[in-house]
UniProtKB/TrEMBL annotation:
One of its GO terms (cellular component) is cytoplasm. Homodimer. Binds the thyroid hormone triiodothyronine (T3); T3 binding inhibits enzymatic activity. GO terms for molecular function: hormone binding; pyrroline-2-carboxylate reductase activity; thiomorpholine-carboxylate dehydrogenase activity. It catalyses: L-pipecolate + NADP(+) = Delta(1)-piperideine-2-carboxylate + NADPH + H(+); Delta(2)-thiazoline-2-carboxylate + NADPH + 2 H(+) = L-thiazolidine-2-carboxylate + NADP(+); (R)-lanthionine ketimine + NADPH + 2 H(+) = (3R,5R)-1,4-thiomorpholine-3,5-dicarboxylate + NADP(+); (S)-cystathionine ketimine + NADH + 2 H(+) = (3R,5S)-2,3,5,6,7-pentahydro-1,4-thiazepine-3,5-dicarboxylate + NAD(+). InterPro entries: NAD(P)-bd_dom_sf, ODC_Mu_crystall, ODC_N. PANTHER family: KETIMINE REDUCTASE MU-CRYSTALLIN (PTHR13812:SF19). It comes from the Eukaryota. Pfam families: OCD_Mu_crystall (PF02423). Gene3D superfamilies: NAD(P)-binding Rossmann-like Domain, ornithine cyclodeaminase, domain 1. This is Ketimine reductase mu-crystallin. Belongs to the ornithine cyclodeaminase/mu-crystallin family.
């Protein structure tokens, strides 16, 4: 995933592998190689795992800030892996949830994460139970077929759809995609790589950047989906923050 911004002095590339069948080691591994954007001199080789976890969750948190309808009380997470953990951390920086619910396809994964999060968190056996009346839903699974259905979602909820990064995979059912107002990180990426968009043929209303810039509306009262695939600029900006903090010129 290469990124270049001369004005931000960012020239970097991330290489990320995804082995969803891994059991005792992480399913994603990443390195980020950073160069000087003016001379091309290599500056740093960074571990990309933590940056991938944190920048993806930070992006969802920003999308939620713009698209959520009022003050959210209930957060539901589908999936209990690396991104589920980073999403709880990032969303709890911005919002105070009264209740957090976790569903995972293996119940013990949900139980483990619910224990880690603590008092206001419960593990759920069914997706429908987890998302009932939820204000914010995050899908962070390695599922190839939809796990979240229209009938279970409260009208006006906001969904961050983070998994299903291949054109033939989807986490969200087509009826939900088609009835929601759909925002993406990158239109160009979404129409080529997102099964949630391609298979459902849902219309993309806007990129989240257009909402932040004020050129497209945040339809807060409607059910909204932010379809995230991940962008190299997220890695470049995060890598720059890290090397600045370390004092690397
Ligand atoms: N949009 C973006 O920028 C990014 C998206 N991603 C995507 O986010 C998703 C989560 O990533 P991450 O948390 O790092 O991965 P993890 O492997 O840490 O977690 C994956 C989760 O999905 C569950 N899972 C595995 N197979 C299935 C299945 N068939 N049906 C339902 N759930 C399943 C796993 O359960 P168990 O472990 O119990 O099997 C686990 O809870 C992936 O799809 C990944 O590619 C990742 C990085 C960036
Ligand atoms: O942006 C990213 O790093 C990824 N998106 C899907 C898998 C990894």
């Amino acid at each position: 995933m290469p990124v270049y911004s001369r004005e931000d002095d960012i020239l970097a590339t991330k290489i990320v592998s995804f082995f969803p069948q891994n059991k005792d080691v992480s399913t994603h591994h990443a390195v980020i190689l950073v160069f000087c954007a003016h001379t091309g001199i290599p500056k740093a080789l960074l571990d990309g795992d933590v940056i991938t976890a944190k920048r993806t969750a930070a992006t969802s948190a920003v999308a939620t800030k713009y698209l959520v309808n009022g003050k959210p009380d209930v957060l539901a997470l589908l999936g209990s892996g690396v991104q589920a953990r980073s999403h709880v951390a990032a969303l709890c920086e911005l919002f105070t949830f009264k209740e957090i619910r976790i569903w995972n396809h293996r119940f013990d994964g949900a139980v483990k994460l619910a224990k880690e999060i603590g008092l206001n968190c419960a593990a759920c056996r069914d997706v429908s139970e987890a998302v009932k009346n939820a204000d914010v839903i995050v899908t962070v699974t390695s599922a190839k077929d939809p796990v979240l259905r229209l009938d279970w979602v409260k009208p006006g909820a906001h969904i961050n759809a983070v998994g299903a990064c291949r054109p033939d995979w989807s986490e969200i059912d087509a009826d939900l995609m088609k009835s929601a107002v759909v925002y993406v990180d990158s239109r160009e990426g979404a129409i080529k790589e997102s099964g949630d968009i391609i298979l459902s043929q849902a219309e993309i209303y806007a990129e989240i950047g257009e909402v932040i810039l004020g050129t497209r509306e945040a339809m807060r009262k409607k059910t909204t989906v932010f379809k995230s695939l991940g962008m190299a600029i997220e890695d470049g900006i995060a890598a720059k923050l890290v090397i600045n903090k370390l004092g690397i010129q």
